[in-house]
Specification:
By secondary structure, the protein is an all-alpha fold. The chain has a domain at 91-123. Helices cover 59% and strands 0% of the residues. The protein contains five helices and no strands. The chain has helices at 2-7, 20-31, 58-62, 68-80, 87-123. The longest helix is centred in the last third of the chain and has 37 residues, at 87-123.
Length: 124
């Protein structure tokens, strides 16, 4: 009986070696990242210098200025890749933008009239 008590976890009577909760806790503890110490041992790599810049030669040396003709040609090529809206989509977008702009105009006009009226009451 005393031997069973020594092997038991306590509450549930399961030996400590067979308790799944303890096994999970041990596995979790062993998988946690370990913080490196601040000691300057030989295995740690300390960055004592700035990161080296790209080599001066590289891709920059081979690039040349873009001429106006090549700029227009490349722009036209990019515009061919654009997915243009259909006529129906264009009308819908136009109506949405027009309504939004009219609402903003009405809001700003109302604020202008309100503040103008208020200033005339206070100072006029």
């Amino acid at each position: 009986m005393a031997q069973e008590k020594d092997n038991a976890d306590g509450d549930n009577g399961v030996p400590a070696a067979q308790d799944p909760a303890r096994e999970v806790a041990k596995a979790a503890a062993s998988s946690r990242p370990v913080r490196k110490s601040a000691s300057n041992d030989e295995t740690s790599t300390k960055k004592d210098h700035a990161t080296p810049k790209q080599r001066a030669g590289g891709a920059r040396a081979t690039r040349k200025r873009t001429t106006p003709v090549s700029f227009v040609r490349e722009s036209a090529d990019e515009l061919r890749k654009v997915v243009w809206p259909t006529a129906t989509q264009l009308r819908q977008y136009f109506v949405v933008v027009l309504v939004f702009v009219l609402l903003v105009i009405a809001y700003v006009s109302a604020l202008d009239l309100l503040f103008g009226w208020g200033l005339l009451k206070i100072f006029g």
